[in-house]
Amino acid sequence: MTGARGEFWMRVVRGEATGAVGRLAAASLRLLSVGYGAALRAHLTGYRLGIARRTRLPVPVVSVGNLTLGGTGKTTAAMAIARWLRDRGKKVAYLSRGYRGGAETQSLVVSAGSGPMVGAEEAGDEAYLVAKALPGVCVLVGKDRRRTGAAAVSELGAEAVVLDDGFQYQRLERDLDLVLVDALHPFGYDSLVPRGLLREPVSGLARADAVWLTHCDLAPANELEAAKARVRSLAPSARLFETAHAPVRLRRLGGEEAAELAALRGRKICGLSSIGNPEAFERSLEELGAELVARVRFPDHHRYREEDLGRALRERASAAEWIVTTEKDAVRLPREAAKRPLWILEITLSGHREGAGLNEELDCLLRSTTGA
Among the listed ranges 81-85, 203-207, 353-357, which one has the minimum average pLDDT value? Predict the structure, then answer.
């Protein structure tokens, strides 16, 4: 849902839409959520009772998923897992649905380990980004992850599989279910889509082997503690780990020019994004000392066109010295965008607070599961 309709939907979800229209919209969405919930329960019951069968691959499968729509940082976490496995000598295959890519309904090898062989429009932005960022990792896209997983093993020699956005994908057996919960908006307003942001009831978190709270560095301390307490009550046997998305550097779009993060301090910035959680990206810029004079947001996975991008920036970013965007957005921006003072904020996933770092946590999670 995009534009004014999308903004109105979010006001309804947050309980901010008032008057007769707001109440009618909330009631309608609640009714649709009931129907969605009934269909979901029937789907999950089929697998729980063994009526529907899961496919077992002959290699370890690690799933990374979430409970809510978008914005938890799944791709960054899945990349960290794939990198950890690769660096320990495993031939890794990364399976993505390829959302909004031309090959989403097919099966496609985006990378056999030597970088992307197709463009972002065909592969989808996330799969293309992974293929560029992780040499040595095979990347496959397709809605049927049983098919792409089997091809990864039989044709590309994969020894371990990372399943991106896999928590609700029941057709494939997994050896580890990792679920991400965004500390800024942890439980999707406690309603199923479309009345809320939950893809399944919060009780589903009990299936998780591990839960990573993301964006912990941006969440108020009391809200973070409340989220942790609720996760522990919903998934008492799951391993809980706090993470942060840490900015590491700035890179100029269309070139190799880089800048230190300190260059943002005191500078007038326009934040440009089309991601699930633009708030976290924009707050990161402010935490780095930028003066955010404009926020230009497009719908998640938006396919930028020069005309809509140019119009939005002319209308809203005239006071900005720089435009800063995300790595996911960068692969979807038109060539003409490189003519503008446009920078990419590169981030990495890290442990939050002092204590065990990300690699130590991955050691604990993955060594016995994958044999790495």
Answer: 353-357
CA dist., res. 285 & res. 296, Å (int) = 13
Closest by CA position to 77, among listed 264, 347, 368: 347
> 192 and 33 in contact (C-beta within 8 Å)?
yes
Average pLDDT of the chain is 91
Between β-strands 258-259 and 239-252, what pairing exists: parallel, antiparallel or unpaired?
antiparallel
Does a structural domain hold residue 55? no
For the cut 60, the answer to whether the pLDDT of residue 1 exceeds it is no
pLDDT band at 14; cut points 50, 70, 90: confident
Would 53 be classed as within a structural domain? no
d(Cα 366, Cα 161) in Å, to the nearest integer?
12
Of the candidates 151, 101, 104, which has an alpha carbon nearest to the alpha carbon of residue 129? 101
CA dihedral 304, 307, 308, 310 (to 10 degrees): 100
Dist CA 131 CA 98 (whole Å): 12
Residue 180 token pair: 């991400």
The answer to whether the beta carbons of residues 274 and 332 sit under 8 Å apart is yes
Of 117, 229, 95, give the one whose Cα is nearest residue 162.
Answer: 95
Residue 238 belongs to a domain: yes
Helix or strand or coil: residue 240?
A: strand
Query: What Cα–Cα distance (Å) separates residue 192 from each residue in 15, 57, 108, 195, 251?
Result: 14, 31, 32, 6, 38
The pLDDT of residue 271: 95
Q: What is the CATH number of the domain that holds 211?
A: 3.40.50.300
Per-residue pLDDT, 103: 59
Are the beta carbons of 248 and 347 closer than 8 angstroms? yes
For residue 148, pLDDT over 90 is answered with: yes
Q: Is 113 helix (H, G, I), strand (E, B) or coil?
A: coil
